[in-house]
Amino acid sequence: MSQDVKQKKQRIGGINIPTIEFKEESVVDSKETKRWENTNVSLEEFDWDTHAADCPSRMRRGNPFVKAPRGTKIFYQGADAQKWFDLYEGITANFKAAVELGEHIVGTIYSITDKWATIDIDHKELVYIDLDKESNSIRSLIKPGKEFTVRITGKKEERGFILGSITEGTRQAIIKELQKSIETGTTAYTGTVTQMIPGGGYIVNIQGIDCFMPGSLAGANKLVDFESIIGTEMYVCPVSYSYEKGTVVVSHRKYLQALVPSEVDKLRNAERGTELTGNVTGSAKFGVFVEFAGCLTGMIHINDLNEEFASKLAQGQVEPGEEITFMVKEIINDKKITLTQKEEIEVENPWDGIMERYVMPAKVQGIVKAVKDYGIFVTIEEGIVGLLHISELVDIDITAIKKGDPISVTITRIDESSRKVFLQLL
After folding, report:
1. Is 118 or 86 the better-scoring residue by pLDDT?
2. Which residues on neighbouring strands pair with residue 299, listed in sequence order?
3. 248 and 296 co-located in one domain
4. Residue-wise pLDDT tens digits, 15-25
């Protein structure tokens, strides 16, 4: 574009002012042109030098009474020219001095046509948005007065005006938001599982951003049917960001873990003996693991299975994903819940009131329940077993101690939440 004439925006802070043209002191080579040769051409083919040569302002006389920076001429001849120029200078002083390629700036949509949208970023010129290059989801949101983050994709010197992309700007803004939520760890987002990566995990789309979810983080437990979640929406929490790949890693499991305390409270408040339904996640010789209430996992010991399931477990016929009904037997803590398929027989819980029965340090006479390499398990009372750690038996020949032997110990600490009793040799 020729440096001879520059047209400035007439929209300044919402105030309509007369057109003010600035002309830099330079010598322009004259040449004969025909205006029709410069019409009906694309923006890339438009001859700015020809346009400037034919511009009527070339013949205008500057206003000598307006104090302006050296090299700038004011062609407006009105008596209030100085006032308008000073106003213009005062407003534009708050505009961004320059924009950089790749910069992300927040602006407001100013105008829209079928092909272009312009966005005001508090610069002396508007940024032009090519609507054909915007994503469908973003294009439907672009309306005058709406605020967006725009990425500068082209500069005036290259194309004749400033080009930007709202899609790319919005993407960067969302990524920054996701990165921030990784630090706080308190935000969950709705994402759509769009595809499965064989042997690796899933692609989860969050507000147009493709994130990666490892298969191990797709549920409270290992999924039985890996393809069952494709196309579904789920809440996920950002957990890490790969700067090398530019990828946000998300977890559905972390979201489910956040729900555990409230779901456990519901179980505690529910009527005892209420029948529940869940799905088998795995099995072992001693019992079956069950996922239920969306985020909870419990275990049914083999002795608490009904005859049908006990028989299937013995024959190795219990399959992951199989539906199973049960009742809550005991809630030890948020991470340890025991379940049963058998009707509960009311039995007094020995742990009830244990802190009132023993004042530490409490000297008691116990019975050896088992001898291990790492210590001795001692029965304090029926249903209450404590550990006498090997470190407390330095001067004792542990091989001489047998199951059923009486032993005098001191209770040093009781942890009700984990149901552990810590002992010292008396």
Report:
1. 118
2. 289, 338
3. no
4. 444 444 444 44
DSSP 394-420: TTS-GGG--TT-EEEEEEEEEETTTTE
Report the relative pairing of strands 233-242 and 189-197 from DSSP bridges.
Answer: antiparallel
What span, in angstroms and rounded, lies between the C-alpha atoms of 411 and 426? 9
At 338 the three-state DSSP class reads strand
Among the listed residues 381, 302, 327, 376, the one whose alpha carbon sits nearest the alpha carbon of residue 349: 381
Evaluate whether residue 97 is within a structural domain. Answer: no
Name the pTM for this structure.
Answer: 0.53
Give the residue from 255, 287, 303 where a domain finishes: 255
> In this structure, what is the dihedral angle of CA atoms 361, 363, 366, 368, given to the nearest 10 degrees?
60
Is 56's pLDDT higher than 60? no
Q: In the Cβ-directed half-sphere of 237, how many Cα atoms lie within 13 Å?
A: 18
Q: Are 163 and 174 in contact (CB under 8 A)?
A: no
Average pLDDT over residues 382-407: 89
Question: Could you tell me what percent of the chain has a pLDDT over 70?
Answer: 81
Residue 111 lies in a domain: yes
Provide the pLDDT for residue 423: 92
Element (H, E) at 291: strand 287-292
Residue 236, phi then psi, degrees to nearest 5: -135, 155
Q: Are residues 302 and 326 in the same domain?
A: yes
Q: Are the C-beta atoms of 50 and 37 separated by less than 8 Å?
A: yes
Total count of domains within the chain? 5
Q: Write the DSSP string, 164-208.
A: EEHHHHHHHHHHHHHHHHHHH----EEEEEEEEETTTEEEEEETT
> ∠ at Cα 194 (188, 196), nearest 5°?
105
Helix (H) or strand (E) holding 263: helix 252-269
The dihedrals phi and psi of 263, each to the nearest 5 degrees, come to -70, -35
Residue 252 gets which letter from DSSP?
H
Per-residue pLDDT tens digits for 217-268: 999 888 888 888 999 999 999 999 988 788 899 999 999 999 999 999 999 8
- Structure tokens that stand for 9 in this block: 């925006």
CA 236, CA 218: separation in Å to the nearest integer?
A: 9
| Token code pair at residue 378 | 């001692």
Residue 409 in any domain: the answer is: yes
* Residue closest to 290 by CA, chosen among 342, 341, 357: 341
Please list the helix, strand and coil fractions of the chain in percent, rounded to the nearest 5, in that order: 25, 35, 40
